[in-house]
Amino acid sequence: MLLPLLRSHPLLHHAARLSSPRTRLLLRRDALPLPLARSPSHPPIRMAASSGSNASSSAPLPPPPAVVHKSKIRFCPACGSPTKLAIPDGDEKMRAICSSCGRVHYENPKMVVGCLVEHDNKVLLCRRKIEPAYGLWTLPAGYLEVGESTAEGASRETLEEACADVEIVSPFAQLDIPLIGQSYIIFRARLKTPNFSPGPESLECALFALDDIPFDSLAFSSIIVTLRMYTEDVKSGSIKFHYCTINKRLGASPSDLRSFDIDSHIAV
């Protein structure tokens, strides 16, 4: 059962480490070995802000700039009146406040869920038929719906995008992307039957051996990080649960391979 698994998972014993605002554990050599990072087909996860930079890839990147979120709520969902940006009493952030009824409208991060489907020592990838990142490869994943658990949402997305009926094995990774207000939860899963085919949002689906994963044609930073961590785990003979924060460069496209750095990496 997934619930007992989550309750007993050793990640829960590391909650204190994650709760500290000073926690900033940069990805260490032992967390993602350098042989993978140096491989021509696997650009390093820690990347320079510009592909034309002459700086050494080992040089530390500057800390990401503080991002002040500007609400996109222009009109009050309750009464339709225009909103204004202001700091409500007792708050410390700018919020969208209705100019008529005074309601405060909050915007919260979105949860994205998906599956890393394992079959015959290969992983299942889908090539996107929609924007963003049309034509690039990704794990089957999408936004969590109200009324479903993260595991249920990950299974549903896999069925929708790859027509694959899967069984959840275990949680594999949680990846936070503060700049775009998203948090990913990726589960390991296996096919109940060896059948899959492209769904409405996929051009094609295929199983890839680890050495054949098209890292230069992956759709999102979250997918790149997930698959690199998984590849290293499998090759080391120990699959772990991973947590990290992905710091994206402001204004970078979703498929820009040189647009992000990762922090606070914990593997248990």
From TrEMBL:
- Taken from the record, one Pfam family name reads Zn_ribbon_Nudix
Start and end residues of each Nudix hydrolase domain: 108-231
Where is the region Disordered? 37-63
Q: Where is the composition biased (Low complexity)?
A: 48-59
The record, for SUPFAM superfamilies, names: Nudix (SSF55811)
Stated name of the protein: Nudix hydrolase domain-containing protein
What species does this protein belong to? Urochloa decumbens
